[in-house]
Design goal:
Layout lengths: L1 H19 L8 H13 L3 H14 L4 H13 L3 H15 L15 E5 L5 H7 L4 H5 L4 E5 L5 H6 L5 E2 L28 E4 L3 H4 L18 H11 L5 E6 L8 H6 L7 H4 L4 E5 L15 E2 L4 H5 L4 H8 L3 E5 L2 H8 L4 E5 L20 E5 L6 H20 L2
């Protein structure tokens, strides 16, 4: 990992020298976007913001520049501008015929369009759907991943799901927007992109982000896991060290190599439960203190139903930046999120807390590739958790 960190820093230094030799005005828009991405990957959102702003000013039909610019603003906690630009992006790449713009929804049916950006993004922005009920919506339809629909029904988030022509997980920030057969849609009064809601709802500062636990676990499955976990003594902690297996450089940066976990499992009075699907390989058999639950309802009733119920009955969750982090935060569970040096925009810069999830503690790499420091900090946090539980 030391070699990886040195290589990372050398690359960042080399890039910085190259970038500074030219003014932004000398570069074309695609080059500016690429430079902005490199700054983002190296954790410098301020310089990334300058590149994306220059690229979009030069070419407003370069939608990638617009999307990246909106995320860079959000990373810098410019919520008003960031959400405004995201709204502009979706209205531009996928204009809607019956756009909702904030008017009364009393007795109306609303169709919500979601992008194919993965479950974590969906969990994060589901918090805005209940706001439609507050505005009077009598019925909410949604386009989304089929496996997650039952979970949304059980959370009373939606009344129906609408099938898309093509809806699959394209990965984070794909420019693809799923298409629907408009002539086959049920009756509705208004439609809106899920990611347009923060701008329409005037989420202009971190304090206006809805943060009350907005997801809940199925009662019958929570009862099952409560009974099952009662047989185990000590602190019960869910753990997730890898996410979706996609050929995405950012995903590789987020993933935690399993060897770094070994010191955690040596801690006393803590029992770990694996929260992501894995195979019982010889590699995993080294983790004798980790239980792999049979998340049967995730298969029978839809994605995350059993996972949410298990999380609901744990004392805490430890996870990298993946869907489990958002699910735990949305459930209001204590969650430690382990982040690479160049964390995603939603974790902002240098924060150890999250305006999105009040129960989250962010533990960041102090330098690229330094998972050792992350695990050391996490170990101290877990020790405090054990000590606190023993006082009562």
């Amino acid at each position: 990992m030391l070699i990886t960190a040195i290589t990372y820093l050398a690359y960042a230094l080399c890039f910085s020298v190259q970038a500074d030799t030219k003014k932004l005005s000398d570069l074309d828009a695609p080059t500016l976007v690429q430079q902005g991405k490199e700054w983002r990957i190296n954790g410098n959102y301020s310089k990334a913001l300058s590149c994306f702003r220059a690229a979009y000013a030069q070419d407003q039909e370069l939608y990638e520049a617009l999307l990246e610019l909106s995320f860079a603003h959000l990373a810098c906690e410019h919520f008003n501008k960031g959400f405004e630009l995201i709204d502009t992006y979706f209205k531009t790449v996928s204009p809607l015929e019956r756009q909702w713009s904030g008017q009364s929804l009393e007795g109306k049916t609303v169709l919500v369009h979601t992008p194919p950006w993965g479950y974590g993004d969906l969990f994060m922005f589901l918090r805005f759907i209940p706001q439609l009920r507050i505005h009077g919506a009598s019925s909410i339809l949604i386009t989304t991943f089929a496996p997650i629909v039952q979970f949304l029904y059980e959370n009373h988030m939606i009344d129906a799901c609408v099938s898309c022509v093509d809806f699959q997980d394209y990965g984070s920030y794909s420019l693809v927007v799923p298409a629907v057969h408009r002539d086959q849609l049920p009756a509705f009064d208004y439609e809106v992109h899920l990611w347009s809601l923060p701008h329409i709802l005037h989420i202009t500062t971190a304090k206006k982000i809805p943060v009350t636990p907005y997801l809940k676990a199925a009662g019958d499955r929570s009862s099952y896991w409560r009974s099952t976990l009662a047989q185990q003594t000590g602190i019960k902690v869910g753990i997730c060290w890898q996410g979706a297996q996609r050929p995405d450089p950012q995903m590789k940066l987020r993933a935690l190599p399993h060897d770094f976990l070994l010191p955690l499992f040596a801690q006393k009075n803590i029992h770990f439960y694996c929260l992501h699907p894995i195979e019982r390989s010889a590699q995993f058999n080294r983790f004798e203190s980790v239980t792999v639950p049979d998340l049967c309802y995730d298969r029978l009733r839809g994605s995350f139903i059993d996972t949410a119920a298990l999380i609901n009955e744990l004392d805490a969750v430890v996870t990298i930046d993946t869907a489990i982090a958002h699910l735990a935060g949305a459930l209001g569970k204590r969650v430690f999120i382990l982040l690479p040096y160049a964390a995603d925009w939603r974790y902002h810069q240098d924060r150890t807390d999250s305006p999105w999830y009040p129960t989250a503690t962010l533990i960041r790499q102090p330098t690229p590739g330094d998972w050792h420091s992350v695990i050391e900090k996490l170990s101290l946090e877990l020790e405090l958790l054990v000590t606190s539980s023993q006082k009562y």
